[in-house]
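Here is a protein:
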Amino acid sequence: MELSDRKQKILQAIIDEYIGTAEPVGSRAISKKNELGLSSATIRNEMADLEEMGYLIQPHTSAGRIPSDVGYRFYVNSLMRRYQMSVEAIEKLQAIMTERVSQLETIIRKASLIASTLTEYTTVVTSPKLNSSRIKKIELVNMGFGNVMIVIITSTGIIKNQSVAIDIDDDFAARLTEVLNSRIAGLTADELTFDKIKQIGDELEGCLDVQPRVLINILNFVYEAIDSLDQTEVYVNNAKSILSYPEFSDVGKAREMLAFLENKDNLVKLIGGAKDGVDIKIGAENEFAELSNSSLVTVNYSMGDKVVGRIGVIGPKRMDYAKVIASLDCISNHVDKILDQLYNTEGEG
């Protein structure tokens, strides 16, 4: 059954009010704060109809109404007003995002922090799977005392480093660095297979006076570091913000939610299951029971024409959807531009 124009306006007014107050909304509050030109009695009757139709819930007999998941869904799809970010906020966002950005991880962490700051909700950002990222350079730095720092820099700015117990001098470290780069620089993670590593090791044994064990230690780290680029990382910001919302005043629910946010596998699955573009999942629409009282809004970001990761906001079902969507859309556009710049620049080199 379609909602009449009057019912839609009343539902919109109730949800707008509830988003701001977190208190059940009564007919008098709606009649006073909204120019609907309707009496409290008329609004009360319409609210009863909306409850019967499944758009509203009456939590207590004498209380007002709150939106149901169905009510929120109709609001998001049909009633929500567009949120316009201020020019000042956009300029500030742009300045923060572009300040000293040279590494992909830095970009993703900044995006997560900014999304949390703008929305005041918990944010979850997934990093790209970069198995197509190329090795830009490998450096071996003699740290002394029988230790060498192996540094791997990729074409997308990711840096992996690890100290390995190898006793070599500065000259040998420099020569080994040069030889390794001549054989590995430019390869992708997909191309740097175990067989390729073994082949390189055999070649290096023939041109360098070095123990096989030393090469094995170095090449094993290179292989593991590049292979790890295919693993999705998750960055969570402002997880404890849920404690400030009355929906999570119950200690048990709060602990359950915080435990969920600490589980990387849950978050990867949660964000990974979102649709491209702006995706909104309200309450029970989320596959995890822990989110039955929450909503998830996600937007993807891209590298070139390929979607490589997502930015998500988790908050109470009464979240300010319009503001969240506008904020995430703006952030993802900036991330796209920065990654496109970085990706194209590196690709040209």
About this structure: Residues 87-128+232-348 form a domain with the Beta-Lactamase fold (CATH 3.30.450.40).
